[in-house]
Amino acid sequence: MDGHNSAKGSKMSFLYALQIIGGCIMVIGYFPQIRQILKTRSVRDLNIKTFISITIGIAMMETYAIGLVIHDHTGGAFLITNSLALAVNVLVVGLIAFFSKPEAVDQPDLTADEPVA
After folding, report:
1. Torsions phi, psi for 115 (to 5 deg)
2. Which of the residues 18, 62, 91, 117 has the least number of beta carbons within 10 Å of its own beta carbon?
3. What is the Cβ-side half-sphere exposure of residue 81, based on CA atoms within 13 angstroms?
4. How many Å apart are CA 80 and CA 94, to the nearest integer?
5. Cβ pair 19, 78 in contact under 8 A
6. What is the pLDDT of residues 7-37, one digit of tens each?
7. Distance CA 96, CA 70 (A)
């Protein structure tokens, strides 16, 4: 192996490591939010549209990552971390949907003693 290939391999190993570390940080970053949702059983301040948009974006990147792995035999680190991020994001969307409750609509109290006009 000549010096050029060695330098290229070293650069790719560094980039691979960056992808794995960055992807893991991205996935771990969701854990405090998931823990908070499960602890409080509240998602009132979370916007499901935001998390659905992020999920769609990650799914599109996932398609790209699959293409890299199948056609170019590269992108394995990207596929792994992206798959984890997609799974965690889908989990958050599911938790938001599960714990979302329709807002109570102010209804007049029809059981009151006063006649309704």
Report:
1. -70, 145
2. 117
3. 17
4. 21
5. yes
6. 777 888 898 899 999 999 999 999 999 999 9
7. 34
Q: Kindly report the CA angle at 84 between 56 and 37, in degrees rounded to 5?
A: 80
∠ CA 41-46-51, rounded to 5°: 115
CATH 1.20.1280.290 fits 8-99, yes or no: yes
**Which CA distances in Å does 91 have to 9, 12, 42, 73, 96?**
36, 32, 15, 29, 9
pLDDT at 9: 75
| Domains in the chain: boundaries | 8-99
Residue 108 to residue 111: CA distance in whole angstroms:
9
Task: Using only the alpha carbons of the chain, give its radius of gyration.
Answer: 23
Band (111; pLDDT cuts 50, 70, 90): low
Q: Where are the beta strands (DSSP E) in 3-108?
A: none
User: Is-contact 43 96, C-beta < 8 A?
Assistant: yes
